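User: Protein folding is very new to me. Would you mind checking the protein record under this note? It all follows right here:
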Amino acid sequence: MPRPIRVAIDLRPLSRGPSTGIGLLLSQILEELPGRGFELIGVSDRPVDSPGVAETIEVRAGRPSGGRIRWETRELPQILRSIQPAPDLYHATWNHGVPPGLPFPALLSLHDLIPWVAPALVPWPRPAVLHQWLYRRQVRASARNARAIVTLSEASRADIVARMPGVASKIVVVPCAVPRWLGPATRDAITSARARFGGRYWLYLGGFDPRKGVELLVEAMAIAFPEGKGAPALVLAGSVNRLATDLARSAAARGIHVTLPGYVPDATLPVLLGGAELFLYPSRHEGFGIPPLLAMAAGTPCVTSDIPAIREVVGNAAILFPSGDARALASRLTGVARDPSSLAPLGRLGMERARSFSVEALADRMTRAYEQAAGSQSGSR
């Protein structure tokens, strides 16, 4: 009987508290791949306390050593080389982190190149110029050292090829998937969610930084509903920072009622999405767009910015507006408010569209990527 392909996999995205988009994708890999002939060994710069990591997965945890890049170049190679029997493959899951000279091949998940493509939209540590240079250097080196590169969309693939044409032949597109836990919310739970937010509400879910365009959403709401007249409640969900609180104050000054529920755990996300009349996603740049996918899967109609990665996700199942155009967004919102009955067909289209982003499809693609990247090692099982 052939032995499993041994894959060392970077679990650092799951060791930093609440799970993000990268954490969701990584959790799906950890759940699906062991049953497909793979033995996973986790590596991290700190202990990993996450429900996404099964007890059957061994984790080799080191210690932080002065930042991501320093750890990747100093401690990570030692941890990888200490694993016995040696892995057949190393999966770097967090945009860079493939050391040179490993005695086995590596696969790099390069989710996007947003810090390279749109550096002005990224909250860099100071000095920003130095950190931008270090980031680009590490991404180039990791892409060069990797046998294969997995990215989330054709839009991200195009960004990578435009800046590193030499790695084009290595790239495989593996879109994100709707998680298995995102089931339908009960009617009673949805009624409770709406009562919590004052009845009818529109929802944003994601981070709060300039790239996400949430300030554009507040401006558009103020244009569409002068002095807040007729405006639904606006729920801005995600880990709260100073920008989030400033936006809530700005909206309140314009008569828009805003609630900041903070980070939303997986267990309550279906109810929050299912209770929303409309999902709003004004992001200026994405590698994929997981929040609109989750909203569509929950049957919630979406209004999103018209950028390449999001178009790949939503297709014709969302209302699009030109990225960065607050007045165009306001026009879309006004149209929805005047004709709420138009939303029901859009919700059904979204659910149908979301079904094509299945966990099974993701696992099939990742299985092929792992097997191809492992190369001759997989042939010796």
